[in-house]
Amino acid sequence: MLADNRSEIRKVLIITLLLNIVVMAIKAVVGWLTGSLSLLADALHSVTDSANNILGLVTNHYANPQPDRDHPYGHQKFDAIGALGIAVFLGIACFEILSGAVQRLLHGGQLVKISPNELWILLIVLGINIFVTFYERRVGKRLGSAILVADAQHTMSDVWVTIMVIAGLIGVWQGEVWNIPQLQSLDVFLSFPVALLVFHSGWKVLTENLPWLVDEMAIAPEIIHDIAMDVPGVVNCHSIASRGVVGRQVFIDMHMIVNAADVETAHRITEEVEAHLEERFSPVRILIHVEPPAYQSDRISYDSENRSH
After folding, report:
1. Residues 239-274, buried b or exposed e (16+ Cβ, 10 A)?
2. What angle do CA 31, 37, 41 make, to 5 degrees?
3. Alpha carbon separation from 282 to 43, 209, 285 (Å, rounded)
4. Pairing of strands 234-245, 249-258
5. C-alpha distances in angstroms, 46 versus 21, 26, 260, 302?
6. 255 forms bridges with which residues in the sheet?
């Protein structure tokens, strides 16, 4: 049975929410004071960090892994839905960054003014982002939480965005020091790769969680077949199906022909197959329909050396 880790996940989300609010506020203030488009875009990216944490808290409240009468397979798809919500926020952030950069290129805007003190503040912000990323990822993988891992991925994109923004602002600052006005354009041009990084993060979150929601095959049936056939007493198996995500939760259904003269022997063989599958793919819920040795069907998926149909 899956453990209910929602209280620990909620604690992590609250801590990261508070840190993300601090990061967002600092970026917004420094961006407004300096007139940096890339930094304001980065602040917008951080707004989605905070929104993701709030979304995660709401999702976590409903994502109980334990089944009940209305949800006999548990509630973990709420977790995947929350992760897809993060992908939506990332898409919005990407659009806002690109539209702001295009507007600046077409119509111009205020010059960026940056000082060493503001750059040091941004380095502190970068350190907070790095801490949040590794903290969420470590706890998310330990607990098997899609929402924490997805949010860590989002925050990692924020780390790279902030690094690029700081590099660009250092260039702008050097342009002021050495009177090179062309370096002002660094701030706008860096907005485009920032948007690409944001889009990449959203796409990765989408592709990692969509299979869970559409019941995509989790394990190749050939692999399940081979594991079952290694157990003495198994003659053949067919109608093998699986769904879920390996490492998070997998459901396996199959029909299995067993060489057993009584129910007790068939039960023992079935439990041994389940143990092998659980050892390989845990956490997993397995449903096996047992059939007698003489069973024949055109639906049998695989031929074995011991039996042909």
Report:
1. ebebbbbeebbbbbebbbbbebeeeeebeebbebbb
2. 80
3. 40, 18, 8
4. antiparallel
5. 8, 10, 61, 52
6. 238, 289
Q: How far apart are CA 258 and CA 268, in angstroms?
A: 10
Give the H or E element holding residue 251.
strand 249-258
Locate all alpha helices (DSSP H) within 71-230, ordered by sequence. 77-107, 116-143, 146-177, 185-189, 191-213, 221-229
What residue has token string 């053949």?
236
- How far apart CA 140 and CA 148 sit, in angstroms, is 5
pLDDT of 97-127, one tens digit each? 788 778 777 776 666 778 888 889 999 999 9
The secondary structure of the chain in percent helix, strand, coil, rounded to multiples of 5, reads 65, 10, 25
Nearest Cα to 5, choosing from 144, 137, 135? 144
Provide the 3-class DSSP secondary structure of residue 287: strand
What is the pLDDT at residue 75?
Answer: 66
39 vs 282: CA distance, rounded Å: 44
Angstrom CA distances, 231 to 33, 98, 269, 282, stand at 69, 57, 7, 18
Cβ-based neighbour number of residue 222 at 10 Å? 11
Q: How far is the C-alpha of 270 from the C-alpha of 266, rounded, in Å?
A: 6
The answer to whether residue 18 scores a pLDDT higher than 90 is yes
Q: Output the CA angle 72-253-6, nearest 5 degrees.
A: 40
| Element housing 242 (H / E) | strand 234-245
Whether omega for the bond prior to residue 72 falls within 30 degrees of 0, making it cis, is no
User: What distance in Å separates the CA atoms of residue 97 and residue 190, rounded to the nearest whole number?
Assistant: 10
87 vs 270, residue with greater confidence: 270
Q: Which two tokens stand for residue 152?
A: 């860590």
* pLDDT reported for residue 68: 74
- Say if CB 220 and CB 254 are below 8 A apart: no
